[in-house]
Amino acid sequence: MDSPENKDLDFAVIDSHRDKRTGYPEVVFCSGKTTDQAEAIIVRMREQGLPVLGTKADGVLAERILRRFSDAEYDEISRILTLGSVRPKNDRKGLVAVVAAGTSDIPIAKEAALSAEFLGSNVELINDVGIAGIHRLFNRLPDIRKARVVVAVAGMEGALAGVLAGQVAVPVIAVPTSVGYGAAFGGLSALLGMLTSCAPGISVVNIDNGFGAGYQANLINQTTDQ
Amino acid sequence: MDSPENKDLDFAVIDSHRDKRTGYPEVVFCSGKTTDQAEAIIVRMREQGLPVLGTKADGVLAERILRRFSDAEYDEISRILTLGSVRPKNDRKGLVAVVAAGTSDIPIAKEAALSAEFLGSNVELINDVGIAGIHRLFNRLPDIRKARVVVAVAGMEGALAGVLAGQVAVPVIAVPTSVGYGAAFGGLSALLGMLTSCAPGISVVNIDNGFGAGYQANLINQTTDQ
Amino acid sequence: MDSPENKDLDFAVIDSHRDKRTGYPEVVFCSGKTTDQAEAIIVRMREQGLPVLGTKADGVLAERILRRFSDAEYDEISRILTLGSVRPKNDRKGLVAVVAAGTSDIPIAKEAALSAEFLGSNVELINDVGIAGIHRLFNRLPDIRKARVVVAVAGMEGALAGVLAGQVAVPVIAVPTSVGYGAAFGGLSALLGMLTSCAPGISVVNIDNGFGAGYQANLINQTTDQ
Amino acid sequence: MDSPENKDLDFAVIDSHRDKRTGYPEVVFCSGKTTDQAEAIIVRMREQGLPVLGTKADGVLAERILRRFSDAEYDEISRILTLGSVRPKNDRKGLVAVVAAGTSDIPIAKEAALSAEFLGSNVELINDVGIAGIHRLFNRLPDIRKARVVVAVAGMEGALAGVLAGQVAVPVIAVPTSVGYGAAFGGLSALLGMLTSCAPGISVVNIDNGFGAGYQANLINQTTDQ
Amino acid sequence: MDSPENKDLDFAVIDSHRDKRTGYPEVVFCSGKTTDQAEAIIVRMREQGLPVLGTKADGVLAERILRRFSDAEYDEISRILTLGSVRPKNDRKGLVAVVAAGTSDIPIAKEAALSAEFLGSNVELINDVGIAGIHRLFNRLPDIRKARVVVAVAGMEGALAGVLAGQVAVPVIAVPTSVGYGAAFGGLSALLGMLTSCAPGISVVNIDNGFGAGYQANLINQTTDQ
Amino acid sequence: MDSPENKDLDFAVIDSHRDKRTGYPEVVFCSGKTTDQAEAIIVRMREQGLPVLGTKADGVLAERILRRFSDAEYDEISRILTLGSVRPKNDRKGLVAVVAAGTSDIPIAKEAALSAEFLGSNVELINDVGIAGIHRLFNRLPDIRKARVVVAVAGMEGALAGVLAGQVAVPVIAVPTSVGYGAAFGGLSALLGMLTSCAPGISVVNIDNGFGAGYQANLINQTTDQ
Amino acid sequence: MDSPENKDLDFAVIDSHRDKRTGYPEVVFCSGKTTDQAEAIIVRMREQGLPVLGTKADGVLAERILRRFSDAEYDEISRILTLGSVRPKNDRKGLVAVVAAGTSDIPIAKEAALSAEFLGSNVELINDVGIAGIHRLFNRLPDIRKARVVVAVAGMEGALAGVLAGQVAVPVIAVPTSVGYGAAFGGLSALLGMLTSCAPGISVVNIDNGFGAGYQANLINQTTDQ
Amino acid sequence: MDSPENKDLDFAVIDSHRDKRTGYPEVVFCSGKTTDQAEAIIVRMREQGLPVLGTKADGVLAERILRRFSDAEYDEISRILTLGSVRPKNDRKGLVAVVAAGTSDIPIAKEAALSAEFLGSNVELINDVGIAGIHRLFNRLPDIRKARVVVAVAGMEGALAGVLAGQVAVPVIAVPTSVGYGAAFGGLSALLGMLTSCAPGISVVNIDNGFGAGYQANLINQTTDQ
């Protein structure tokens, strides 16, 4: 085994051809790795000239990377860490609307938004328009309808996704969040609600997987753009 | 043990004082009893002069009772069987709105409606106003707002309850139904969604328990009436 | 988007018409929001002249609000934070009985009681009358029967709700709590028990959702009062 | 391998020393065996002079055995099949009270009762004393208190066990049943409720395991008798 | 209430503006409705000049509709019933690849394929390329890569979705199926596997929801086409 | 309400007649109560002359009680706190065998043992005889067979209960523990295993409920003794 | 796409290189396929000269295949269908012991045994040696210890696997079965018990997956043989 | 009871004949034992001349043992603690390949690897070859195919096991890990995926049970070697 990608990292094999197969470089899921491991992977990707998106990055890792690379950026709320981006800011395409049901869903909504921006999409982030006061959502529908794809982020009963999918003519990517307590069972209630919605045009990612939704939304948005 | 209520039924003890404690006679949950048992209980209640509400009654039992008692009524869709009622039809009070999300929820919605009517409430039944086309619900809000209590019946993600609770000034009794498949897990998705709704003013009964919702709605409606 | 309610909060949209639709202002669920966010929402609601009910508020937030507003009140046990109330204390209506099965259920029972009082109901709080020594409950039945609605708060098997519903002529709102261990599974045992009770006249809110029960109970109590 | 017990049955090894180790012969759980297998096992036990208790036996097997052995008895409701008994009827000992919450719980309650009788206990079967009308239970407490052990059989929320355990000075063996629907989840609600009851003095057997409860109750009752 | 859509169906409100809001007419989920109800809804939609897609339609309904409408088509395997289509066959756009892991997944895969075709997409259906013999999948990658969106249909561990998402540059819509037994728990294993896949670019619909996947895939494919 | 038992504790109602109904005084489940509440209840019981058993008591509470009452005893491993006992040590009756599968199960086994001793039983505690090396259990069978009732304490697969029940002629009370990880799911695996054991003569208490098992075992042992 | 393996089956791609990669031909899981599909696959494999093992085959399919191929064999109990075998009967290697806990586990045990024989192993099948009468198992240990690998088949609490693994020096492959009711939850109790056993040397296959166990056992046995 | 093994440890019975029955000495599962207990057991095993493998050992225990025994070794990542080994390093046999899907799975993979080495196998550890970039796995297949048994370690959807089993001719032991979040439910998604894989030749151990997999792999590898 002597390929360049695993010359000196015995704990990680950077998938350097991912770019060619899927159009986007590998992303670093930081949680579950030691700070040393995550740092080494980021450094290695940097050496290969790849832009880096780190998700669920804690403050300790962020501090190390910010100190080391002047173009690193870290968002505390979403725990998104970036070095560069797939497209320059002024060359982002289309529009992704990220819609959060409540204030507590913002960290995951921002994770989706920053991920989609990193990958090359324009993003509009719309907060606190849950279904308990549904006019708040309807007030924002004109903005939401400008998007080519909508990301709906909600915990508890997750009903935002179904209501939205009945109002727009584009795909809705639903992100259940672990916001809530008791019978929310860590996001299970929102997950099941989004999966079983009576409105078609919804597909769902893992609980709290803002990145996954941002990635999928960007993929749809970009393909559309070609 | 020689009280009148258990003289000759060795498998059932009719709670003949229930009326005095709770304001309403006992109700016969027919499923799980043999046809002979259910029939014997109904006959015995009739002998005691009590009006009878039988829930989840199958056609075989219904046929027997209809043949035996000329004032018996049976609704095939909701499987509700009645002999008389707590209040005469022309003396029903207040208003309960029973709102069903989809056509498949109608059996349970009718179970709620007929139960509440039997117990003495006026009922308005409103069908197929699920959240995928939410204007259908908004079209009916003026009717719904006339009620003193709303019963929201929905399967799948059960979002109807939360949307309704944000629009009305009265209590919402939510009934999750087992309508749906896959991740609906027999009504679990709707149940969890209704329990964790971000909108206050909702309380929930068991999956497919139309009777329980109609009973609770009538209780609220009647108390209001005093 | 230039409506007054979202002029300067980018993370929250206060539902300032909620009052008109549902009769009560929005409530602040503090858990899951940062202290800064919760504080800003409370300040904004205050500026709009709204009374504030904060639920699941931690001590840090409480201290900040108590320092800032002289009429703020905080109850450590239930973690309820209030500024003003919907009705003045001397104009509360009707009666809600809040009944707690055990000493460990008191925090949630108090959350229900303080919520209902904030919204305008008189409340009687009755503690430690679980079903293991059922005469303790029966001793208190005369008090409980004075209420227009009963809130039953219990963890473990949650049997209090069913026993109560068989003894009173008014609606029972059941609150399962996460009290217990092992097969209590964080309140699941009480939740399932309350949902499947053989006694009608019960509807259930989320595990540990004292506020939701207090809100629903007040709604029933107040409607009754009109 | 040439011991008498497996000479000609290749699908079953009768545990012929069980009697000596545990005081009671093996019992035949008929469900899951083919009719031929169950019949062959019963015939073999008969040849060895053992009394036979068959549980969850269907009508086809029962008919075959009744035709073959004149002293066989079959109870359709509980699906209990017996040939002889461990003690003659007139030599039964002590007293086991089997208490069923509702009419639908009777099949399992009778399974417990007939099992305990087969094994040598006197049994009192008390039906339909669920907690929704708790005076029905209290009316029967004097009878129940005569027993050395109580079997409490209930579906739905299963609260009967906890209420009973707070009223008697002997062990309660609780049997959750699969009676109920929706959130009863096939007996899970009753099972969890019985396991987490706040009243001590309860231990629980499997859902619908009337036999297991009758066996355990007899064991306690008989030991007491020595 | 006098709008045309609910003039004579008391059990259903056809959402006749859905077309304008979302670009596609309502779809009839036949399971859970009576044959009479489903038929009446289809007739009514026909009268309004709408093309009809009926999902999970049983043979009895199909026979009635086929007898009544000469242009009706029914596919027994997928239980898809159509009358007309949103776009004529010769005007379908783009390409959706529907990839089935095993022979037993074909009914759901065909449901996805026929739904996407009805809505206006060209579809390539590729069967039996599960991951146990992964070269079968790799043989078909050139075909799959021609599509603008891929639907991955798999039961059991559902790993097809993750492997595919690592090989293509377009969105993957994953459909878990209930194929499998034991720990497949009715599709739960595939659902959880697809949701938690380490490969980004996947979003998931409900278990056995071929229609939902076909709808979402068409939405992405069509948007792309504009 | 002026009965002696609730004169000055507003958070607890000591069930002072429990003794008469069930033969044993109330027990204090300390977890979930504040230290102040637990202390106050213990002090009050002391004033009423009752012996006190506190379960799941933490070190802070223990220290306070040990300082206050010279006859208090605390066992750190099982977190059992006692003041006096129901019977004096030299007047304990019969024999309960408490058998622990592994070293990690000892805290719960000791909770059972100390509870049964407090209530008046002689106890033999036998450790680390799990089924992986089953001869260790068989070596101790002569000791175990001297008991009138056996408590089997085990986590993981919980097989100890079933093996034991096949070897003894007395009731086995099974205690699943939360020992284990992964698919042990906090004791669920042991709980389900014990409930479904093919060996009759087992009944089960809640996960980690050593006290409940000790209580039930003592009840059986004592009844036997009369 | 013109490879021989999918020339005329549009619903299945026979993995004709499987043999080379894994040492064994593909196996036909018949359940979930239509009879026509299963038959066509078997015919095609036959044409390619491959021996065929069909699992979970129903009687209708079996009849067709038995009529068509004179060397086909069908075992009704295990629903195993074979045409030829990987090794001739007189050239089977080593020894696999398949041990079934109870009579009801025999269908799955036979599925394991016949699968391993088809693939080339000698098999000893040992029935009804569950842990409730553990001497029955110990009587057979000398036979079991002759095997190079042991398959342990058990439902309910599944304890057989752990007891066996503590007694033998070879790998144990555990098969949980769906035998049991109530808290057995379709095999979940046995599955969790086997996964969490305190005895090392066990690995587990899916519930009721006798084939999977036989395949794995043969793999171990054959490798050993080389 | 006077056998040497339990002379002075009252909390543990070392199974000193395990060696003879199963070929390997007992292993110390350190988690759940107090540091004192674990230390005492290790010391006792040392006195009996047994090599020691401690799993899930925390740093505090490790430090004590390293200070006390000069030949002790501790690996922080896998928390494996060893004193000596079953075979000397230069006498290890065969080859076990341990394959980890991602960097976060390395602790469990190393637990498997070090366990197998301790027990006498040569091990090749291969990291970060998850299925999202499947060529990384295919690059390493030549190495993997040299092994007599493969351990596949993966969290999230756990698909690595199924892909591997379709590519090798030896048994795969699958270890689900708790790596992942949301619908990974602590390893449940990987566990179910591995159990239900469509590829035969897989058997599964408990979530995060690296040791169990290493033990089983060594057992297969060693048997093969004889």
For the largest sheet of chain A, list the strands in their spatial order: 6-5-7-8-9
Q: What is the H/E string of chain A?
A: HEHEHEEEHEHEHEHEH
Note the beta-strand portion of chain A. 15-25%
Number of strands of chain A: 9
Could you give a short account of the major beta sheet of chain A? 5 strands, parallel
- Given the structure, what is the number of helices of chain A? 8
Structural summary, described in words:
Eight copies of one chain form a homooctamer. By secondary structure, chain A is of the alpha/beta class. Chain A has two domains: 4-83, no CATH class; 89-225, Rossmann fold (3-Layer(aba) Sandwich). In chain A, 36% of the residues lie in helices and 19% in strands. Chain A has eight helices and nine strands. In chain A, the strands form two sheets. Chain A has a five-stranded parallel sheet, sandwiched between helices. Chain A has a four-stranded mixed sheet with strand order 1-2-4-3, sandwiched between helices. In chain A, helix 2 runs parallel beside helix 3 and helix 4 (106-119) runs parallel beside helix 8 (210-225). The longest helix of chain A is centred in the C-terminal third of the chain and has 16 residues, at 210-225. The N and C termini of chain A lie far apart (38 Å). At the A-E interface, helix 1, strand 9 and helix 8 of A face helix 1, strand 9 and helix 8 of E.
